[in-house]
Design goal:
Number of helices: 20
CATH architecture: Orthogonal Bundle
Strand content: under 5%
Number of strands: 2
Distance between the termini: 53 Å
Bound molecules: phenylalanine
Strand order of the largest sheet: 1-2
CATH topology: Hydantoin permease
Order of helices and strands: HHHHHHHHHHHHHHHHHEEHHH
Structural class: mainly alpha
Length: about 450
């Protein structure tokens, strides 16, 4: 098969690469702003429950499928199940392409912030209120940045899942974590700390709607890269003697910690510097790119060095995610259509980029793209696609995958792949989560959203 079944080079190879896929803009950019929009507390609690009860079991399931089949998602579903299951693989490919199309746009913003930070470090901090909204509505800047990120992703994917990705993540992830911890500690010395901690950790369920529940669940799938087969692809490279449970647990804990740390940091800064709230009301999607620079340059010792360093790391965190997103569709074209890797990469990247242009121009540059409203309160192509992919495509893909692992894969192969010798109690719990609880939870939520239910 064209997609060489190399294996991760080191013990932590899988954990690092999978964490590289999971930790990305979902944690650093999306989690804080949707938590803000959903009024914190209760949303965070529902998110954590979704991560533990749905995310971890499904992560194990996806890795298991990949390692068992040694194939990318579409052929994997076919080989372990039957032709009837291949649409699940295709749904994942479609979700991956949709997500990649708008993800590249936000990833491009990190390049912009990096350049801006360099300028501020050299000449002093001069951010003006409303500057970010202006940046968003400049179509040409948006397109150039998106194209740059798209080319970088395609270049790496075209070379295959190389040792390069694994080696790079091994250095970059710990550096990112170290900077995040430093940023968090500094933020916690600011006045807004108590208000921020209360906003993030004290639940107020009167704020929750069915839509909010769905969004928390969708975010859990999105942030853990689940429901579209990315972990099936990465799982197909994991060594046979590694524990699927431990690997999945590591990825989940790392991913969730990064999301929470980032969220607490941002909220603290926002509550400490009141004028930031005015700027954010215009574009809470830009939270990461507005709040952190403010802290780097006005509050933090060494911020002039850490500012640019941080945004370069954000770009890398995004890159290790776009690579895994690109790999889902590219590996399919190689496995299924028989294209060479470079051809598969270029064609998929070009198609995805066409989609990206619509999102890139939907932040004010082109009126009709910015105002289209398919889902209530989700204005513009970007918000529409994000809502569609994260809150519908991923949960539905995840639901079908849990049914597949729970009912279709034989118990014998499942137990064997998990490295067990018999059906232990934790195994049974896991199995019944996949068989019944997870599918019911997703279906129940989707049903309530369609009925417009308000849980408050
Ligand atoms: N998990 C990534 C993030 O949080 C996004 C992603 C989703 C990557 C799905 C791959 C697959 O940024």
């Amino acid at each position: 098969m064209a997609l060489g079944r190399g294996h991760w080079g080191s013990r932590f190879g899988f954990v690092l690469a999978a964490a590289g896929s999971a930790v990305g803009l979902g944690n650093l950019w999306k989690f804080p702003y949707i938590t803000w929009e959903n009024n914190g507390g209760a949303f965070v609690l529902v998110y954590l429950a979704a991560v533990a009860l749905l995310g971890l079991p499904l992560m194990m399931g996806e890795i298991l499928i990949g390692r068992r089949a040694q194939q990318s998602p579409v052929p994997a579903f076919e080989m372990l199940g039957s032709k009837r299951w291949t649409p699940v693989g295709w749904l994942g490919v479609a979700a991956g392409a949709v997500i990649l199309s708008y993800y590249l746009v936000i990833a491009g913003w990190s390049l912009w912030s990096f350049a801006q930070c360099i300028g501020w470090s050299l000449h002093g901090y001069t951010a003006k209120e409303g500057a970010f909204t202006q940046f968003l509505s400049s179509g040409s800047i948006q397109l150039v940045l998106t194209a740059a990120f798209s080319i970088a992703t395609a270049l790496i994917v075209s070379r295959g899942i190389s040792r390069g990705i694994e080696k790079a993540t091994m250095v970059l992830m710990p550096v990112l974590l170290a900077i995040l911890i430093y940023v968090l500690i500094t933020a916690l010395t600011m006045d807004g700390r108590d208000q921020a901690l209360a906003a993030v950790f004290v639940p107020d369920f009167s704020q929750m709607t069915a839509e909010g529940f769905l969004e928390a669940m969708g975010q859990a799938f999105f942030s853990l890269s689940l429901g579209l087969g990315a972990m099936i692809v990465y799982g197909s490279y994991i060594n046979k003697d590694e524990s699927i449970f431990k690997s999945a647990l590591w990825v989940v804990v790392l991913d969730t910690s990064v999301a929470l740390m980032t969220c607490v940091t941002m909220f603290t800064i926002i509550f400490s510097i009141p004028e930031l709230q005015n700027d954010l009301s215009g574009s809470s999607v830009g939270m990461l790119f507005i709040t952190l620079p403010k802290m780097f340059y006005t509050q933090m010792p060494g911020g002039a060095v850490l500012g640019p360093a941080f945004f370069i790391l954000v770009a890398f965190a995004a890159l290790s995610s776009t690579i895994s997103l690109g790999e889902v569709s590219t590996s399919l074209m190689i496995d299924r259509v028989g294209w060479s890797r470079p051809k598969a990469t270029v064609v998929t990247a070009a198609v995805v980029f066409l989609g990206s242009t619509l999102s890139a121009l939907s932040f004010g540059a082109v009126g009709s793209l910015s105002s289209i409203e398919v889902f209530a309160n989700k204005q513009g192509v970007f918000a529409t696609l994000d809502h569609l992919a994260a809150n519908y495509m991923l949960p539905i893909g995840g639901l079908l995958t849990t049914l597949f692992v729970g009912w279709k894969l034989g118990r014998k192969s499942t137990i064997e792949e998990l490295g067990l010798s018999r059906e232990t109690v934790p195994f049974k719990i896991w199995l019944w989560i996949l068989r019944v609880f997870a599918p019911m939870a997703v279906l129940y939520l989707l049903f309530n959203v369609f009925m417009g239910k308000d849980f408050s």
